Amino acid sequence: MSYGAKTYKKTAITTASRERVLLMMYEGAIKSAKLARIALEKKNTVDKCKHISKVHDIVMELNNSLDHSKSPDVASQLAALYDFCVQQLLKANLHNDLPAVENVIKILTTLYEGWVVAIEEVARKGQNP
Question: Which domains does the chain have, with CATH numbers?
């Protein structure tokens, strides 16, 4: 990535709303999980590890950013999903388990789609999430 592209990306992230940052994190995790799937299919160990590591880091950041004080039930359910994703990523990495990566892609895509709808609904009502 060129210097200009890196600067643009950094600016886009630092000036984005927290909702947009959340969606960008999911987008990055899903993209990396799909790249990990491709690497697994091609038996490319280096790329598999690189992409799985990136998904892992993003999922851990999502998990660490949960606010259990505002909605403990939702936060606990999300934490359980994130923990399952981490377990699946470990399984995929250690055992070249393609279905494990596909599980992560499905979960993250479903969560992403849910957040998109929730954010749009909140924006439509003019409320802060």
Answer: 17-125 (1.20.120.340)
Give the separation between CA 62 and CA 100, rounded to whole angstroms: 19
**107: number of Cβ within 10 Å:** 19
CB 89 within 8 A of CB 66: no
pLDDT digits (tens, 9 = 90+) for 65-124: 999 999 999 999 999 999 999 999 999 999 999 999 999 999 999 999 999 999 999 888
Element (H, E) at 106: helix 98-125
Rounded to an integer, what is the distance from CA 82 to the centroid of its chain? 9
Which DSSP helix (H) or strand (E) runs through 82? helix 72-95
pTM, whole model, 2 decimals? Answer: 0.86
The torsion region of residue 106 among left (phi > 0), alpha (psi -120 to 50) and beta comes to alpha
**For residue 96, what is the DSSP state?**
-
At 16, the pLDDT band (50, 70, 90 cuts) reads confident
Residues in the chain: 129
Give the helix/strand (H/E) hosting 71: none
